Amino acid sequence: MFIDIAKIYIKAGDGGHGSASFRREKYVPLGGPDGGDGGDGGSVIFKVDPGLRTLLDFKYKRKHVAERGEDGASQKMYGRAGKDLVIKVPPGTVIKEAESGKIIADLKEDGEQAVVARGGRGGKGNAKFATSTRQAPNFAQPGLPGEERNVVLELKLLADVGLVGFPNVGKSTMLSMVTGAKPKIANYHFTTLTPNLGVVDIKGIESFVLADIPGLIEGAHEGVGLGIDFLRHVERTRLLIHVIDVSGVEGRDPIDDFEKINDELKLYNEKLSKKPQIVVANKTDIAENEENYEKLKEYVEEKGMKIFKISAATNTGLRELMLYVGSILNTIEVEEEYTEDEMFVPEERKFTYDVEIDEEGVYVVSGSLVDRLLLQVNIYDSESIKYFHRTLERRGIIAKLKEMGIQDNDLVRMDDFEFEFLD
């Protein structure tokens, strides 16, 4: 089964907590703090595996969590770092942040990898908080949580040239004739249900990868037919071969077909409409009306495009077409796929706070800084309370409270912890 899109949840490992412990050994009655640091949490890393061709595995497993770091221990023993979680994906996988749709990573080359969720840093043990004036700190840092996010994986085939056109115009037959690919071929619409790749290797030109993109019909960009499922595979190609049936057997207007397919490319992604394009008039061996070809030829040449007259079924004109494609491929510059605005930039991890006065006149301090600080301190220990107060001063919370007009004996609330303010 060919699966080229999947949505999954990933979470990096949390950092281990630092230890708050003291030496308690025989003949060492006044042992100092010896709590070790917690280990860092494991990160979630995506890595290209050239042996994979589909995102099928992610259809069945949608939650991926890396290992957390171990907590620190006494005798200054550090916790073990959590193992990174390495998730293997096929070449050509684009990783997007689900909420914004922005690109986190685009993995193409064998072995290429990207850290998509970073593990949390381990907390410091109380041994790290000992100073000449604070010799018995009874507190330690908690570990930081690992990053977590929902991501969308999109597989975009790595092909140099893409075959586009309406169903049953001969794209699969053409692919089978010029490459070693063996796509399913039959005389009905939507024979091709998945993209097919083949390598064109003809003497006189450098080999290139050709992709048959199925399912394009009017309304494809909105999900009609199979189009929306496979239009993404056209995005990486440098050149498009637009295959058009000029036989007249199905009563189609080749110019109308040409315009409709190009409209779909433009509506899906403006960049696709600007890709170099070669027009191929196919099924000329069974043409009922030669005027179809002449009318199409005049129309596309007015647009500055080159047109080839072929019969994929009888292998007529294909060699000349492929030689021409191979000769111009290296002259086509590979454009940057993404702009800066399309790239995802993770927010810098900062501990923030907010101060408000509630209806009862209580000064309420909230935010990630408060949450972390309360996890760290022991409010029943005098040394810990001193550290707590100095942190409030150092982080500007005391200054903010004064700026808001706090007076001695006014009540301050931080989560479930309340205390009277004394300057």
TrEMBL record:
<keyword id="KW-0963">Cytoplasm</keyword>
<keyword id="KW-0547">Nucleotide-binding</keyword>
<dbReference type="InterPro" id="IPR006073">
    <property type="entry name" value="GTP-bd"/>
</dbReference>
<keyword id="KW-0479">Metal-binding</keyword>
<feature type="binding site">
    <location>
        <begin position="282"/>
        <end position="285"/>
    </location>
    <ligand>
        <name>GTP</name>
    </ligand>
</feature>
<dbReference type="InterPro" id="IPR015349">
    <property type="entry name" value="OCT_dom"/>
</dbReference>
<feature type="domain" description="Obg">
    <location>
        <begin position="1"/>
        <end position="158"/>
    </location>
</feature>
<feature type="domain" description="OCT">
    <location>
        <begin position="343"/>
        <end position="423"/>
    </location>
</feature>
<keyword id="KW-0342">GTP-binding</keyword>
<keyword id="KW-0460">Magnesium</keyword>
<dbReference type="Pfam" id="PF01926">
    <property type="entry name" value="MMR_HSR1"/>
</dbReference>
<dbReference type="InterPro" id="IPR036346">
    <property type="entry name" value="GTP-bd_prot_GTP1/OBG_C_sf"/>
</dbReference>
<feature type="binding site">
    <location>
        <begin position="165"/>
        <end position="172"/>
    </location>
    <ligand>
        <name>GTP</name>
    </ligand>
</feature>
<comment type="subunit">
    <text>Monomer.</text>
</comment>
<dbReference type="InterPro" id="IPR005225">
    <property type="entry name" value="Small_GTP-bd"/>
</dbReference>
<dbReference type="GO" id="GO:0042254">
    <property type="term" value="P:ribosome biogenesis"/>
</dbReference>
<dbReference type="Pfam" id="PF09269">
    <property type="entry name" value="DUF1967"/>
</dbReference>
<dbReference type="GO" id="GO:0005525">
    <property type="term" value="F:GTP binding"/>
</dbReference>
<dbReference type="GO" id="GO:0000287">
    <property type="term" value="F:magnesium ion binding"/>
</dbReference>
<keyword id="KW-0378">Hydrolase</keyword>
<dbReference type="InterPro" id="IPR014100">
    <property type="entry name" value="GTP-bd_Obg/CgtA"/>
</dbReference>
<dbReference type="InterPro" id="IPR036726">
    <property type="entry name" value="GTP1_OBG_dom_sf"/>
</dbReference>
<dbReference type="InterPro" id="IPR006074">
    <property type="entry name" value="GTP1-OBG_CS"/>
</dbReference>
<feature type="binding site">
    <location>
        <begin position="311"/>
        <end position="313"/>
    </location>
    <ligand>
        <name>GTP</name>
    </ligand>
</feature>
<dbReference type="InterPro" id="IPR031167">
    <property type="entry name" value="G_OBG"/>
</dbReference>
<feature type="binding site">
    <location>
        <position position="172"/>
    </location>
    <ligand>
        <name>Mg(2+)</name>
    </ligand>
</feature>
<feature type="domain" description="OBG-type G">
    <location>
        <begin position="159"/>
        <end position="330"/>
    </location>
</feature>
<dbReference type="GO" id="GO:0003924">
    <property type="term" value="F:GTPase activity"/>
</dbReference>
<feature type="binding site">
    <location>
        <begin position="190"/>
        <end position="194"/>
    </location>
    <ligand>
        <name>GTP</name>
    </ligand>
</feature>
<dbReference type="InterPro" id="IPR045086">
    <property type="entry name" value="OBG_GTPase"/>
</dbReference>
<dbReference type="GO" id="GO:0005737">
    <property type="term" value="C:cytoplasm"/>
</dbReference>
<comment type="function">
    <text>An essential GTPase which binds GTP, GDP and possibly (p)ppGpp with moderate affinity, with high nucleotide exchange rates and a fairly low GTP hydrolysis rate. Plays a role in control of the cell cycle, stress response, ribosome biogenesis and in those bacteria that undergo differentiation, in morphogenesis control.</text>
</comment>
<comment type="similarity">
    <text>Belongs to the TRAFAC class OBG-HflX-like GTPase superfamily. OBG GTPase family.</text>
</comment>
<feature type="binding site">
    <location>
        <position position="192"/>
    </location>
    <ligand>
        <name>Mg(2+)</name>
    </ligand>
</feature>
<dbReference type="InterPro" id="IPR027417">
    <property type="entry name" value="P-loop_NTPase"/>
</dbReference>
<protein>
    <recommendedName>
        <fullName>GTPase Obg</fullName>
        <ecNumber>3.6.5.-</ecNumber>
    </recommendedName>
</protein>
<dbReference type="Pfam" id="PF01018">
    <property type="entry name" value="GTP1_OBG"/>
</dbReference>
<dbReference type="InterPro" id="IPR006169">
    <property type="entry name" value="GTP1_OBG_dom"/>
</dbReference>
<feature type="binding site">
    <location>
        <begin position="212"/>
        <end position="215"/>
    </location>
    <ligand>
        <name>GTP</name>
    </ligand>
</feature>
